[in-house]
Amino acid sequence: MGRNSTSPEITSPVDDNGDLGFKPIRDRFPLKRNPNSHSHAHHESHKDHDEKLDRHWRGRLHHNRPNRKGFSFKGTYLFYGAVVFAVLVFVVASVLLQSTMTSVFRQGRESGKALREGLKMGGSLRFVPVGLLRRFGNESGVGRLRLENRVGIRAPRLAIILGNMRKDPLSLMVFTVLKSLRELGYVLKIYAVEKGKAHSLWEQIGGQVSTISLNSTGRVDWSNYEGIIVDSLEAKEVISSLMQEPFCSIPLIWIVQEDLLAKRLPLYVEMGWENLVVEWRSSFSRADIVVYPDFSLPMLYSVLDTGNFFVIPGSPVNVWGAESYIKTHSKDQLRKDNGVHMDDLVVLVVGSSIFYDELSLDYAVAMHAIGPLLRKFSRKDADGSFKFVFLCGNSTDGYNDALEGVASHLGLPRGSLTHYGLDGDVNSVLLRADIILHGSFQDEQGFPPLLVRAMTFGIPVIAPDLPIITKYVIDGVHGLIFKKHKPDTLMRAFSLLVSKRELSKFAHVIASSGKLLAKNMLASDCVSGYAKLLENVLHFPSYASLPIPVSHLQKHTWEWNLFGKEIEIPNQSSGTRKSSVVYVLEEEFALLGSNMSTSQNETEILSLENPTELDWTVLREIENSEELERREKDELEGRTERGLGSWDEIYRNARRSEKLKFEPNERDEGELERIGQSLCIYEIYTGAGASPFLHHGSLYRGLSLIVKFVIFELVRWISDHPTFLLSQSPKARRSRSDDVDAVNRLPLLNDTFYKDLLCEFGGMFSISNRVDNIHKVPWIGFQSWHATGRKIAPSSPTAPQSVEKRGGASRDNEKAVSLSIKAEKVLEETIQAETEGDVVYYWSKVDLDNGVAGGNDILTFWSLCDILNGGRCRTVFGDSFRQMYGLPPDIEALPPMPEDGGKWSALHSWVMPTPSFLEFMMFSRIFVDSLDSLHNDTSNTKCLLGSSELEKKHCYCRMLELLVNVWAYHSARRMVYIDPISGSLEEQHLIEERKGFMWVKYFNITLLKSMDEDLAEAADDNEYPREEWLWPLTGEVHWQGIYEREREERYRQKMDKKRKTKEKLLERQKYGYRQKTLGRRT
Fold first, then answer.
1. For residue range 737-758, what is the model confidence (pLDDT) as tens digits?
2. What are the boundaries of the region Disordered (predicted)?
3. Neighbours of 84 (CB within 10 A)
4. How far apart are CA 131 and CA 133, in angstroms?
5. Could you tell me if residue 768 is inside a domain?
6. 498 — phi, psi (to 5°)?
7. Cα 770 to chain center, whole Å?
């Protein structure tokens, strides 16, 4: 499907008119939260700026020194005075850090320049998925569906694909979300790429977990589910099977929590592995939504963005990491190892997790404003040692020297001001701090992850009143909030936390409350975010119940009780890392690259031996000489008399000529096996994804509905469907000799609109079109590919039954719906012995034995049809039937169906005599044309038989699936159900019991033939009843006038042939027979 590109927006301060400025960025640019190094050239470009800035500070300090003559910094007042300069130094350091990132923006296009110009002080860079939000706004979601009268006979289903089953924070987040989704009413089926320790936990919410591999993914019918959720990059190989028809339109949500691939993408670009980047981008484009738990990840993956990136903030990874670190590290030992005394008070200053160019002015203005207020407290005396640590940038940026210079000017002891980079042991720096100060005034979209870790460590936090922080943190309860435009509030916060050179009791209370808050702070928002996303993305069928509204969800916590006993850091050993799909693909592409380079070298060697012009001249002379000799030899052989030879020579020559025949004219093994058989079952499929569900052998033959596109249509589709080439490639269709190309036999199916409307019925129309050319056996059958992929429950008088359908087909979890070998044998033997009457055998049934939503009402045929078709099956069927036969409005037009509890056919899985099939197709073509005329009416521009987008796309399919039951019942055909496993036969709806209920007169073959001839005559005379007339496009157009015209044409051709033969004989009698001269004329 086409997608609008997702682009971040720059939110600038309010302008003079009071409006907010929004400037979309169309081009992506790479950003790194923790860059490891910066280019030397870029460092030199800012060297002069750094030196001027340093001289500026030195000059100011030196100039102000006489004004503070006799003034001494002591004790706690030294601490307050140093806070001012410490934060100012942090601003200077951030300036140096952010200036080094300018080169990153310079690598972009002119949009990067526009970004830096538009991002003013007080503004912020925000990730806004414009295309997805617009799409969600246009689609009303389930809100509109809840206002409709719906009868759900089953819960919505989700397929969950797990990349691994480890007990780690990534699995904890997914497990918590899925458990909550199950509480909302979703039914989960879990598939895993590999087994792991959490196998038993996943079985608690999804039942039996199925392990799938690259070879077994083709055996899963993904169309059974309303949506698919993939939890990690490790399930990438499964995505490939979802990129093929008929699975490429199923909603797919891909959760990407790892940053491993994001770190490797710049390496791919550097090494020229563009094909590998394209491979990952193609996989990402298959997902309807790619969900990230952090707002920085979409920027890191921006090279793979196709407009489907979305962020649902919330993950226990920071809490998990902090708790894991506490288990193996001691705060006292860390302080001791890093030269921090037990009596020292360490203040750690952190900033935004992502820095942008020219944002440091916000820091400078704010900290300069609180400077005078902090200097007041430096007049009091106290003892103590204070250390200020700045956590930003990288450890190799050389900020420590600048900080030591500032400390010496302040008269502070050596080591009072230190810097640590984000590329080091961040947990160690956080754990040995006493107070955490969030110094950034930039409004962020997600809660700062460093604050979550600090709160988990039990460290009191001071932060500005940013909306994302005040949303979760209560001032004075979980931390201290200061107003960024009121410096006295920051002073008050420090005074509340520090008492007599140590942390106050109030600080410990706040730290404890903050730790409890951080444990599950983002869990509820994460769960509700995924629940709302599913409501906007999934297509809920009319027969599926809707999930419980998100507002009914209670406040959730991460499932620590199930995962908490094994808090551990995920294994990062080289063996585990190298087993990741990211590294596996790298090795494959590296090997492919070496083979390509070897091939190029061989080509270069061969190019040195290219033939010259003289060589080509000699070659042409040799070929001309050989051709002359061959012609002379043929002429001599033609003049020489030869005997016929022995029978062995004749036999060998005949065999040799057969081998030289063009391959498509040969009969394949399957066609030879079908000769002499009485039955052929056509399995209808729509793409390469359905091929593994098809049978092989003489009894079955594939019927392909894959559409052929002309060049200009293909170019248009490629731009909107990145995965279209894969799903429509030549490999999507099986070998020509095995399968019948339905699109080639019926050109109507080239129109994807009608192909989607008719579904399997389009394949049946193609077989009935000139059936003698393709089907020459007395019995014919059909079976949808869904029959092999779907299951039915074993019959049990005590087991609760449930109707599990998509498009009206039965499904459960125990036995296959397709015929077993035993049932196939029974069916063949039965039809060979059948000599009297018309019989319809079917093996996929619609289960009507259960009530609706736990009630006592039994589902009848028409009530089930209503449920499957948006509650309008009876109305639309009756109107179509009335228009088909021209019935007056006061006459009932809905054929009655019995309520005897019998079985009805589903999934187009039935067998009947070939003449009966042609009669059924005659009736169906007229009915479908009448049905189509109702939907083409100007007053009814939408699908009348469905509510979701998927149901509207396949509007006629669910009603047509049940049409064979109405035709067989009212045309007095015997209806026999054959058990697909045991092969036992059971006749349904006995003909004796139908008397008085059947509308035989409307299904009489004589009446249908007369109606068919009338329509054919109108089509032959170009008297179309409406502009878009479907009937002539669904099969043969034939009536008596066409037959007479064809007979006259054959007679005319016969007479022309006789006339030419007579003229030829007369010419020979007049001039004699003249043989052409052999050889050349001299």
1. 578 999 999 999 999 999 999 9
2. 1-52, 791-815, 1053-1082
3. 21
4. 6
5. no
6. -110, 130
7. 40
Measured in degrees and rounded to the nearest 5, phi and psi for residue 147 equal -85, -15
Residue 1075 banded pLDDT, cuts 50, 70, 90: low
Q: Are residues 287 and 400 in the same domain?
A: no
Count of other CB atoms within 10 angstroms of residue 562: 17
- Looking at the structure, tell me whether residues 333 and 310 fall in a common domain: no
Residues 6+ apart with CB under 8 A from 115: 10, 23, 25, 29, 105, 108, 125
Condensed to tens digits (0 to 9), the pLDDT of residues 901-948 reads 889 999 999 999 999 999 999 999 999 999 999 888 755 557 888 888
Query: Which residue, among 488, 610, 5, 531, has the nearest Cα to 253 in the 3D structure?
Result: 531
Distance of CA 746 to the CA centre of its chain: 32
Same domain, 539 and 446: no
Q: Give the Cα separation of 751 and 753 in Å (integer).
A: 5
Counting the structural domains of the chain, the total is: 4
Parallel, antiparallel, or unpaired: how do β-strands 309-311 and 289-292 relate? parallel
Question: Mind listing the pLDDT tens digit for each residue in 821-863?
Answer: 999 999 999 998 876 778 999 999 886 444 333 444 567 899 8
The answer to whether residues 258 and 294 belong to one domain is yes
Angstrom distance (rounded) from CA 600 to CA 964 = 61
Residues 6 or more apart whose CB falls under 8 angstroms from that of 646 comprise: none
Selection from 127, 422, 454, 103 nearest residue 297 by Cα: 127
Question: H or E stretch including 762?
Answer: helix 760-768
pTM summary value: 0.77
654's tokens: 């005949």
Sign of CA dihedral 786, 789, 790, 791: positive
| Interatomic CA distance for residues 499 and 785, integer angstroms | 76
Q: For residues 143 and 253, state if they share a domain.
A: yes
Distance CA 284, CA 262 (A): 13
Number of H-type helices and E-type strands within the chain: 44, 30
| 238 CA to centre of own chain | 11
Confidence of residue 101 (pLDDT cuts 50, 70, 90): very low
In a domain, 377, yes or no: yes
| Segment 968-992 mean pLDDT | 93
Q: Are residues 321 and 308 in the same domain?
A: no
Q: Considering the domain boundaries, does residue 616 fall inside one?
A: no
Question: What is residue 16's predicted lDDT score, i.e. its pLDDT?
Answer: 38
CA distance 503 to 1000: 94
**Share of residues in the chain with pLDDT > 70 (%):** 69
Cα Rg of the chain, angstroms: 39
Tell me: pLDDT of 160 over 70: yes
Taking the C-alpha atoms of residue 88 and residue 417, their distance in angstroms, rounded to an integer, is: 12
Using CA atoms of 518, 523, 529, 535 in order, give the dihedral in degrees to the nearest 10. Answer: -170
CA 71 vs. chain centroid, Å, equals 68
Cα–Cα distance measured from residue 491 to residue 502, given in angstroms and rounded to the nearest whole number: 16
Between CA 920 and CA 926, with CA 922 as vertex, the angle to 5 degrees is 115
> Is it the case that residue 247 has pLDDT exceeding 80?
yes
CA 532-537-542 angle, to 5 degrees, is: 100
- In this structure, the answer to whether residues 293 and 389 fall within a common structural domain is no
Domain that holds residue 1049: 1039-1071
Tokens representing 1001?
Answer: 């007169």
Nearest to 674 by CA among 577, 819, 778, 590: 778
Q: Please, are residues 501 and 76 in contact by the beta-carbon 8 Å criterion?
A: yes
* Torsion angle of the four alpha carbons 950, 956, 959, 962, in this order, in degrees rounded to the nearest 10: -100
Q: For residue 225, which of 208, 204, 249, 243 has the smallest C-alpha distance?
A: 249
Q: How many CB atoms lie within 10 A of CB 577?
A: 12
**CA angle 165-169-171, nearest 5°?**
30
> Do residues 496 and 252 lie in contact, with contact meaning Cβ atoms separated by under 8 Å?
no
Can the peptide bond before residue 246 be classed as cis, meaning omega within 30 degrees of 0? yes
Q: 437, 347 in Cβ contact below 8 A? A: yes
Burial 110-125 (b: 16+ CB within 10 A, else e): ebbebbbebbbebbbb
